[in-house]
C-alpha cells in the first residue's frame, strides 16, 4: 500500500491537466507519508447522483454528457501521457467511478485518485497474480476477469458512470462476485431506452460506443470526448 501511495503521488504530480486533481507534494513526517493535493470546492459525482435520486429529479442529459466529456479528456491525457524523458507511460486509471469525479462550484470537472493506476513505471500488484483492482460495479469486462487492461478499460467504466447519471441507478447490480462477472462480461446489456426515460438516440449510440464488451470495438477516450462534446454543443 505504501508503494501504491508513493507511486500515485509521483505519477499524478506529472499529470498537469485542467480536468485532473493536481498533486503538489509528497512528504513524510515521523514515518507517516502524506500527499498534499489541490483542494476542490464542490461535491463528488456520487453525492450529486445520490441527491438527485433522493429528490426524484433526473440529472439533465446535457449535464451528464458534459461531465463525462471532461472526464474523457482527463483520461485521454493520462492514456497518452509521455514522461519528460520521452517514455510513454500508458497510464490506466482503473478506478473511474462517481466517487472519484468532482465538480467544483464554478463548474469545473476533476478526475481524482490515481491510487491504483497502472503505468509502465509503477508497481502493479495485479501483475504479480491474477487479481481484480478497482470498484467491482464499474469494472470493464477485461478488468472483472482479471485480464490485462489498457485505456479502453477506463472508457467502459466511464460509460457505466454515464449510464448511472442518466438512469440514477447502477448499470450492474449483482453483489456476489461470480454473478457480477457473468453480468458484466457475459449477459447482454439491458435495453437502455427501457431504463432511461427520454434517452436521445444519438446519445444512446455514444453510450454504446463506451459500453462495447470487446475493447477493439470500444471507443477511445479521445473519441468519446469528441462525440460527447459535439452532442452537448448540438443541444443548444
Give a short summary of the structure.
This protein has helices spanning 2-13, 45-55, 61-79, 125-128, 141-144, 151-167, 177-185, 192-195, 201-210, 221-233, and strands at residues 23-29, 32-37, 101-103, 109-111.
List the defining traits of the structure above.
single chain, 236 residues, mainly alpha, two-stranded antiparallel sheet, 4 strands, 44% helix
Secondary structure blueprint with pairings:
Blueprint: H1 2-13, E1 23-29, E2 32-37, H2 45-55, H3 61-79, E3 101-103, E4 109-111, H4 125-128, H5 141-144, H6 151-167, H7 177-185, H8 192-195, H9 201-210, H10 221-233
Antiparallel strand pairs: 1-2, 3-4
Tell me what you see in this structure.
This protein is mainly alpha-helical and 236 residues long. Strand 1 and strand 2 form a beta hairpin. Helix 6 runs antiparallel to helix 9 and helix 9 packs antiparallel against helix 10. A two-stranded antiparallel sheet has the order 1-2. Strands 3-4 form a two-stranded antiparallel sheet. It contains ten helices and four strands. Helix content is 44%, strand content 8%. The longest helix has 19 residues, at 61-79. It has helices at residues 2-13, 45-55, 61-79, 125-128, 141-144, 151-167, 177-185, 192-195, 201-210, 221-233, and strands at 23-29, 32-37, 101-103, 109-111.
Q: Uncertain runs with pLDDT below 50, 5 residues or more?
A: none
Structural class: mainly alpha
Number of strands: 4
Task: Name the shape in a single word.
Answer: globular
Largest sheet: 2 strands, antiparallel
Helix coverage percent of residues?
Answer: 40-55%
Number of helices: 10
The fraction of residues assigned to DSSP E strands is 5-15%
Strands of the widest sheet, in order across it, are 1-2
SSE string: HEEHHEEHHHHHHH
Radius of gyration: 17 Å
